[in-house]
Amino acid sequence: MDVQGTVEDGFEPVRDAFAANFAERGERGAAVAVYRDGRKVVDLWGGTRDGDARPGGAEPWEPGTAQIVRSATKGIAATVPLLLHQRGLLDLDAPVGTYWPEFKAAGKDRVLVRHLLAHRAGLPVLDTPLTPAQAVDGVSGPAAVAAQAPAWTPGTDHGYHAQTYSWLLGELVLRVTGRTLGTWVAEEISGPLGLDLWIGLPTEARARVGRLAPVEAPPRPAAAGLRVRPKKTVADAYADPASLTSRAFAAISPAPDENSDAYRAGELPASAGIATAPALARAYAALIGPVDGHARLFAPATLTLARTEESAGPDRTLLVNTRFGLGFMLHGPASPLLGPGSFGHPGRGGALAFADPEHGVAFGYVTNGMQRNVTADPRAQALVRALATVSG
């Protein structure tokens, strides 16, 4: 594979790992970027822009090629309520119903804002799944989660809110600001920082987005310490349509066409963000420090909130041990990042973005080849391991 782009001296192991992803780990088209102390030090891309492209008829990945990053969107989305809190507009310890009165239904009057962010609200599933059209209409999703009874007593346990996170956070931000979450990101983060990053793709950017496609991953040994319920594996749970795991990911049913214009334009903060790798890395770099003259986005107290553990241990949805701060996944067995202080979010099937303040590092990886994983993608992990060797 002819890898394109640049790396600064000392970061060559990241280029080597990126090239090895194509040769050894089933990569079709991807990009990776790294910022260190507010400066871009890695910017690489390669392969084809469409994961389902036929050999010989494929358009190459270009520097500005963007992709849907699935649940890596959640980390960007979580930035919004934390910045609203930083500005004094949102109380993380207030009941959600303070801002969204309809949400109090079905015993949810004591669900706190921080419960939504830390996957502790007990709302990972919907009794009646939404159609793809309903999922993006801006009305059906919020109404469904507002009416839904929790699957457990909110605040007492955690379970990944794979799809419902979209409507929970999206409606909360709308009630507090009068703007949709995607609009807020565009106006307050992507615009000022010059990011190719959208939650709700505008028509004029459609041509820049490649197509996702499933790809097979080479076999790998199971990661130690992940399985916490030996009698039922994650694969078993996905195969059981009645399981919490299966129902959480099927809150939109049938599965939407992620390559459709309607899905890409829909503002789904849990799953449908679209970005380039440099945009993800730059966004996280701006959370932890100044970037090209722009002041850092997170004040020190907000940065502490983002990466202070709120949820840890067996995840009711993912059936592995997960760790969450306020909206961000933290370094742990389910999603190894650069170090104990790292915070960010993976996307199911590949994408990953995070920051590590102790090393002054921000990382973004996007791919069009969706492998069968939820958190620790082997291609992303290879890049993280390479970065660890040069980050000191």
Structural notes for this entry:
The chain has about 400 residues and is α+β, with helices and mostly antiparallel strands. Helix content is about 30%, strand content about 15%. The chain is built from 13 helices and 14 strands. The chain has helices at about 10-25, 75-85, 115, 130-135, 140-145, 165-175, 180-195, 235-240, 245-250, 260-265, 275-290, 300-305, 380-390, and strands at about 5, 30-35, 40-45, 65-70, 195-200, 215, 275, 310-315, 320-325, 330, 345, 350-355, 360-365, 370. Helix 1 (about 10-25) runs antiparallel to helix 13 and helix 2 runs parallel beside helix 6 (about 165-175).
Topology (elements, then pairings):
Layout: E1 4-7, H1 12-24, E2 29-36, E3 39-47, E4 67-68, H2 73-86, H3 113-117, H4 132-135, H5 140-147, H6 165-177, H7 181-193, E5 197-198, E6 213-214, H8 234-239, H9 244-249, H10 261-265, E7 274-275, H11 277-288, H12 300-307, E8 311-314, E9 321-324, E10 329-330, E11 343-346, E12 352-356, E13 361-367, E14 369-370, H13 378-390
Parallel strand pairs: 6-14
Antiparallel strand pairs: 1-3, 2-3, 2-13, 4-7, 5-7, 8-9, 10-11, 11-12, 12-13
Helix pairs in contact: 1-13, 2-6, 2-12, 5-6
